[in-house]
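Can't paste images in this forum, so I'm doing it all in text. The chain is below; anyone willing to post the predicted structure tokens underneath?
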Amino acid sequence: MRFSEILGHDAQKEALMAGVALGRIPHAQLFVGPEGCGLLPMALAYAQYVFCQNQTSENADVGAGCNLRCDQLSHPDLHFVYPTATNNRVKSKPSSIAFLDDWRSFVLESPYGGLFDWYQHLGVENKQGQIGVADAQELISALGLKSYEGGWKGAVVWGADKLNIAAANKLLKLVEEPPEKTLLLLVTNHEDQVLETLRSRCQTTTFSSLPPQTIASGLLSKGCP
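Text version of the structure:
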């Protein structure tokens, strides 16, 4: 996902890119805004910019490979955590890693989709998803390893308000003592439901609803009547 593909939020894009150019990249950041405003695309575009910008400027071929892997949500140093629940295929101990293929297809098809859309995609019916301690432990282990590509490593936690207490507390140590060149992006539509001790340690970027004219222009650009 590239910044150029995202509707609106020009001021936030410029601020995020300027921070990267100046080498000011907070290790833990919280993206907050209403559903449908494009928080997940923004987080993906920002992570891709952090991961690939320097590589592109130093070596066009290396940068192109980095961007391609991020576009496909397959960069080995970028991890994803999101709410899950049991379904017909995963009948116990649901976790993000068990639904990775579903996640990739959902995001590539519906990057602006919301939590209800995600649950429908998974076929979890009326169950309430959550992010559990197993997800937090898996993420800590992954980010504790050396970067595959020698640059940044990180994670996007989508639906950070769905972290249960144990998982949120487990992530606190990662936020407080992050490994070098580690980026943790928490994304939520409900900032007040994120554990206060966790969100207080993140730099927050707030996004607003997209103006109707911006949405209309975006639909027209994609060929919608």
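The longest helix spans residues 39-58. The radius of gyration is 17 Å.
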